UniProtKB/TrEMBL annotation:
PANTHER family: 23S RRNA (GUANOSINE-2'-O-)-METHYLTRANSFERASE RLMB. Residues 25-37 have a biased composition (Basic and acidic residues). Residues 47-120 form the RNA 2-O ribose methyltransferase substrate binding domain. Residues 7-24 have a biased composition (Basic residues). This is 23S rRNA (Guanosine(2251)-2'-O)-methyltransferase RlmB. InterPro entries: Alpha/beta_knot_MTases (IPR029028), Ribosomal_eL30-like_sf (IPR029064), rRNA_MeTrfase_TrmH (IPR004441), SpoU_MeTrfase (IPR001537), SpoU_subst-bd (IPR013123), tRNA_m1G_MTases_N (IPR029026). It comes from Camelimonas fluminis. Residues 1-37 are annotated as: Disordered.
């Protein structure tokens, strides 16, 4: 090898040129522009985007549409699925929806503004139901995942507070993947008071706590039943705990004894479905 000739690996590095770092600046600029110009909606308007949330809403005859935007590809997909919206859709380009939902949202060519669904009151909820009570769970991704799981297990309603909880729209609705069409969300001002009302109506309220006295499967469960879940890290607030008839933990043999709250909800609902299945009609 010639003394003036660089080793092969040096030649390869030179031919590739300098390594390029990901262009985060452009993405951050797009996020900042969207936040500065994000559209404003009426307080009671629900924003849905993505295939499953919008398709399930179209299939729900009880859902009232205010606006529907679709791309040409999404329009064809709706037609192939046999879904006919109750409102005339606006055919738009994908970037027009990008401006409404943000640069990071996966909208799949579908965007809708709809009215919220009617929700039951605490006094009108079914006497044989299973309910989820959320104590200051603020992450919309977690709450959306809980709604999706609740729909899969036939939960009658989710009870949450007006404050310290995300609105049932946007990111939450996308994470719920259509679950909002099947599980009503009941918003209350005082969670402890709501639990007291439910207990007086015969609902068995079980708080999930990693340090609970009993394993969930060991609690003698019955319907109507409410599972009460607290925020990650903080857990259930003291007054919430006092309103529960039992505090139970999930039996996990591994070294880590706590789970993401949406995963804990799924495992707990599975245990409830085995312990007290719905009565066959």
């Amino acid at each position: 090898m010639s003394a003036n000739r660089p080793p092969p690996h040096h030649r390869n590095q030179a031919s590739r040129g300098p390594r390029r770092r990901p262009d985060h600046a452009r993405r951050e600029a797009a996020r900042a522009e969207w936040k500065a110009n994000r559209p404003e909606h009426a307080e009671d308007t629900v924003v849905l985007y993505g295939w499953r949330p919008v398709a399930e809403a179209i299939a729900n005859s009880g859902r009232s549409f205010l606006r529907l935007l679709v791309t040409e590809n999404a329009q064809r997909r709706l037609q192939e699925a046999g879904l006919t919206p109750a409102i005339t859709a606006e055919i738009v380009r994908p970037e027009q929806i990008d401006r409404l939902v943000g640069p990071d949202a996966v909208h799949q060519g579908l965007y809708a503004e709809v009215e919220p669904l009617d929700a039951p009151t605490l006094e009108s909820m079914p006497q044989d139901g299973v309910f989820l009570v959320l104590d200051q769970i603020t992450d919309p991704h977690n709450v959306g995942a809980i709604v999706r799981t609740a729909a899969a297990f036939g939960v009658s309603a989710i009870i949450t507070t007006a404050r310290h909880s995300p609105a049932a729209t946007g990111v939450l609705a996308k994470s719920a993947s259509g679950g909002l069409e099947y599980v009503p969300i009941v918003t209350v001002r005082n969670l402890a008071g709501a639990l007291q009302t439910m207990s007086e109506r015969g609902v068995m309220c079980i708080g999930l706590d990693s340090e609970g006295d009993s394993v969930l499967e060991g609690v003698p469960m019955r319907r109507p039943l409410a599972l009460v879940l607290g925020a990650e890290g903080k857990g259930l607030r003291q007054l919430t705990r006092q309103r529960c008839q039992a505090l139970a933990r999930l039996d996990m043999p591994g070294r880590i004894k706590s789970l993401n709250v949406s995963n804990a909800a799924a495992i707990s609902l599975y245990a409830v479905a085995r312990a007290c299945p719905p009565v066959a009609e």
